[in-house]
Amino acid sequence: MCLVRLPQSAAVARLAARTTMKCWGLSEDLTADAELIACELVTNAIRHSGSRNVQEPGHCRLTLERPASDAVRIEVSDGSMTRPAKREPGEDEPNGRGLILVAALAADWGVTHRPGGKTVWALLRAQP
Q1: Residues in a beta bridge with 17
Q2: pLDDT digits (tens, 9 = 90+) for 48-71
Q3: Residue 114 backbone phi and psi in degrees, to 5
Q4: For residue 42, which of 80, 68, 9, 81 has the smallest C-alpha distance?
Q5: How far are the Cα atoms of 6, 53, 82 from residue 123, in angstroms, in the given order?
Q6: Residues 93, 63: contact at Cβ < 8 Å?
Q7: HSE of 25 in the Cβ direction (CA atoms, 13 Å)?
Q8: What is the C-alpha to C-alpha distance for residues 128 and 113, in angstroms, rounded to an integer?
Q9: Could you tell me the domains of the chain?
Q10: In this prediction, what percent of the chain has a pLDDT beyond 90?
């Protein structure tokens, strides 16, 4: 799904993840984790991957796939080559916890560089 890099696209990503997970018949817990991860990865793409020009905000791409019956892979691709980094925000800082959450919820996550940008991905595993 192609999303415009505007703040409201994070909510669209959350809804897309929920709808996809429900269509696949996956658990509510896994669905909630997928929603949060999709929202956080899209939010990072909106905030950190290029132009801040509201007239031409650019795009990012959200992809959800099932590489195995017990796994869901969530990817967000954008046109930035800048690698995201987990931060350690102070208690009073309102931002900077997105990748900490992704790392806590996902079985694995990472970044794949590609021509013209990168893809940040997270792998969720269903609990037996």
Answers
A1: none
A2: 776 555 556 688 999 999 999 999
A3: -140, 165
A4: 9
A5: 25, 32, 21
A6: no
A7: 2
A8: 32
A9: 2-125 (3.30.565.10)
A10: 64
